[in-house]
Specification:
The protein is 0% helix and 56% strand. It contains no helices and 11 strands. The chain has strands at 2-7, 10-13, 18-26, 33-39, 46-52, 55-58, 66-71, 76-81, 90-97, 105-106, 110-115. The strands form 2 sheets. Strands 2, 4, 5, 6, 9, 10 and 11 form a 7-stranded mixed β-sheet that branches. It has a 4-stranded antiparallel β-sheet with strand order 1-3-8-7, with no helix packed on it. It is globular and about 40 Å long.
């Protein structure tokens, strides 16, 4: 089992920045892939970014604005979000898993609200 706890959400104006954190515990070695997803009201959950040994990958909608990184010593993955837009408003979820199933484990989510 892997436990994930997100933090760092909040409210910000358009153009601002936030950094989300996902702290992992448990059998973290079994889940080398960490990803961020988000879900806006009335919409389906969508992929945002992932990180694994081969590198990072981003959704087109956040490429160039968001950066995913990992501090293995702290068992924490970060999502630095810059140049935020109102359409980035959503609950952001951290997920952990394998390349075959990246969403095996989920965190509880953290709200990000971007006002215009």
């Amino acid at each position: 089992q892997v436990q994930l706890v997100e933090s760092g959400g909040g409210s910000v104006q358009a153009g601002g920045s936030l950094r989300l954190s996902c702290t992992m515990s448990g059998r973290t070695f079994s889940s080398p892939v960490i990803a961020w997803f988000r879900q806006a009201p009335g919409k389906e959950r969508e992929f945002v970014a992932r990180i694994m040994w081969s590198g990072e990958y981003y959704a087109d909608s956040v490429k160039g604005r968001f950066t995913i990184s990992r501090d293995s010593a702290k068992n924490t993955v970060y999502l630095q979000m810059n140049s935020l837009k109102p359409e980035d408003t959503a609950v952001y979820y951290c997920a952990a898993g394998t390349p075959m199933r990246v969403d095996e484990y989920w965190g509880q989510g953290t709200q990000v609200t971007v006002s215009s």
